[in-house]
Amino acid sequence: MKVLVTGSNGQLGHDVIMELNKRGYDALGVDIKEMDITDSASVESVFNGFGPDAVVHCAAWTAVDAAENNADACRLVNAKGTGNIADACKRYNTKLVYLSTDYVFNGEGETPWKPDDKCEPLNVYGLTKYEGELEVKRLEKFFILRISWVFGKNGKNFVKTVLGLIENHNVLNFVDDQTGTPTYTPDLSRLICDMLETEKYGVYHVSNEGGYISWYDFVLEILKQVKRTDVTVNPVSSDEFKTPAKRPHNSRLDKSKLAENGFKPLPDWKDALKRYLTEIGDNNESD
Predict the structure, then answer these.
(1) Are the C-beta atoms of residues 260 and 202 closer than 8 Å to each other?
(2) Contacts for 164 with CB less than 8 Å, ≥ 6 apart
(3) How many C-beta atoms lie closer than 10 Å to residue 267's C-beta?
(4) Could you tell me which residues are beta bridge partners of residue 5?
(5) Distances 73 to 24, 56, 64, 102, 154 between C-alpha atoms, Å
(6) pLDDT, tens digit, 9 for 90 and up, residues 193-233
(7) For residue 13, what is the enclosing H or E element?
(8) SS3 of 182, please?
(9) What is the DSSP letter of 213?
(10) Is the N or C terminus of the chain more exposed, i.e. has fewer CB atoms within 10 Å?
């Protein structure tokens, strides 16, 4: 199987290529220099040259706050760019995996979101990702994976931010009224490749197992695993952390559809965090 991976310089795209290579597939990773997804001619050129059997579309505008004042630029990437990918997949009869987000929902309540729940995006980023979903749904052979709180080795993420902060601060404030579950990119990449080997198309919700937590809870576990007992973390409300883009209070995702379709759920998020810290050399915990 020949698989084209967009956004290959990002933390997920990088790990998807590693997993594809591990399985012996012919993987081609492209980023904006190799293929500009907003340019249909550029997309066509790569498809024509490589002839992929499947595409894992990781490329996206992910700067959530910047999107609020750059809606057109964000939409160009997340909606039109995805539309160009979808058009090419339709012409070449190619499977498409599209990475979406919990931000397509309104972020209210406490009930975990199901794949067929109504989408009411709460910010520009979420809206453009939803518009990308609509482009993908024009196809017959698609997987839409809504994910949350992503972290991995090859890029910026929340864990790295926390590790950076504790280098110079021994008191931290983090919100405790936004709830979800982290998603570790190597685990997600394994699932993506599992899906590509099937025809069980549709919309899925994906994150690591282990229960729902707040960002505050996540920080406490990070500090526990790196054995930093000298750092104090204070729980605060979202109202004390004003950002240009509104954040969801409820990022809980109902992932039961995965098991229902025979897919192996992702491991516990605490185990994923431990493996990640070991990989980047910041785990002081010994077995």
Answers:
(1) no
(2) none
(3) 17
(4) 29, 56
(5) 37, 22, 12, 21, 24
(6) 999 999 999 999 999 999 999 999 999 999 999 999 999 99
(7) helix 11-22
(8) coil
(9) E
(10) C
Q: Which amino acid is at 177?
A: D
204 is catalytic: no
CA 263, 213, 115, 43 dihedral sign is: negative
Give SS3 for 96: strand
Catalytic residue (one of 25, 92, 98, 125) = 125
Structure tokens, 38: 């907003």
Answer whether 0.85 is exceeded by the pTM.
yes
Contact 137, 82 (CB under 8 A): no
Q: For residue 225, which of 281, 149, 265 has the smallest C-alpha distance?
A: 281
DSSP 44: H
Distance CA 113, CA 107 (A): 9
Q: Which contiguous run of DSSP H or E holds residue 228?
A: none
User: Which two structure tokens, joined as six digits, stand for 164?
Assistant: 């950076």
